[in-house]
Amino acid sequence: IEWTTEEGWHDAKVVPYGPLVLDPAASVFHYAQEIFEGIKAYRHADSSIWTFRADANGRRLQRSAARLALPELSVDDFVESLKQLVSVDRDWVPSAPETSLYLRPFMIATESFLGVRAAHRVGYYVIASPAGAYFPGGVEPVSIWLSTQYSRAGKGGTGAAKTGGNYAASLLPQEEAYANGCSQVLFLDSVDTTYIEELGGMNVVFVKRDGTLVTPASDSILEGITRDSILQLAEDRGHRVERRRVSLEEWREGVASGEIVEVFACGTAAVVVPIAELKGDGLSIVSPVAGPDSLTLSLRAELTDIQYGRRPDPHGWLTRLDA
Ligand code: PMP
Predict the structure, then answer these.
(1) Which of 1, 25, 188, 220 has the fewest C-beta atoms under 10 angstroms from its C-beta?
(2) Residue ranges of the alpha helices (H) in 33-136?
(3) Where does the pLDDT of residue 1 fall: very low under 50, low under 70, confident under 90, or very high at 90 and above?
């Protein structure tokens, strides 16, 4: 869908996949005025195709747009764009267990203009790619790397928006994580470098001995929709949920004293992953391994059962895409 200041949103169409032709002066190339979303389409046993919390993703795209001075796309148009794309070829959505069609909506400044100001011409697109099961052999705990030198987002910056610049800032520490045998990097807050923010592409949740779930509250992290859903399911089961600042020290002491019994990361791609270890310069916090009876894995199973239509959807989180 195209947008200009004069016409607003117009010219919605589905076209065969291929290169986008953009002027080399398009402002997205120079000032990174872009935002995106990540959402999946799931095939249910009766072959119908559904997506999960499309309204929440649509609203998050609107918040990202506001921060990046991009135009607002209505949630209805967002959901319709997913429906249109999926309806091109229903066979696109795989049917093997735990597979999905990953949908990547994104919005970029396409105006050819080298002055630094919000673009007057913008494009919104959705591409898709079938995604295999994230853990074909069963969920595996991960080790994560603490970035002490770099932060992902600063106070007043774009941390709460889903915009490419945040990910650009995380690539170098992510490489550091890989080089140290870790799959994700953990960022601390940029002001005090004391409080846990999030991983490069996932949120973090702690489970305490009394069943309370604690997750970092910060205005510079991405409000994950998986995290929100998992915490809702935990609340439905009667667990207390705390959204507040969590220091690295609280993690270290909590694990040492047995107060923290499980730690997990969550996001659309992997859903929920137990964190086995946090490593960093001279630091190692080995968290208890989440066993088959853990809250981590049972909440994961409940959420994926809802997404794949294997159990009722009590919060009305699913939207049918192929009808
Ligand atoms: N934080 C970051 C930085 C992310 O990229 C993601 C993935 N979108 C998340 C958290 C988790 O968000 P969600 O559960 O909505 O996928």
Answers:
(1) 25
(2) 54-67, 75-88
(3) very high
Q: Residue 289 pLDDT more than 90?
A: no
Q: pLDDT for 56-76, tens place per residue?
A: 999 999 999 999 999 999 999
Ligand 1 touching residue 141 (CB < 6 A): no
Q: Is the CB of 38 under 6 A from ligand 1?
A: yes
| Ligand 1 contact via 222 beta carbon (within 6 Å) | yes
Tokens of 180: 């140290």
Domains of the chain: 2-131 (3.30.470.10), 142-307 (3.20.10.10)
Q: Is 201 in the pocket of ligand 1 (CB under 6 A)?
A: yes
Nearest to 269 by CA among 199, 208, 209, 211: 199
For ligand 1, atom 10, the nearest C-alpha belongs to 202
Average pLDDT score over residue span 228-240: 98
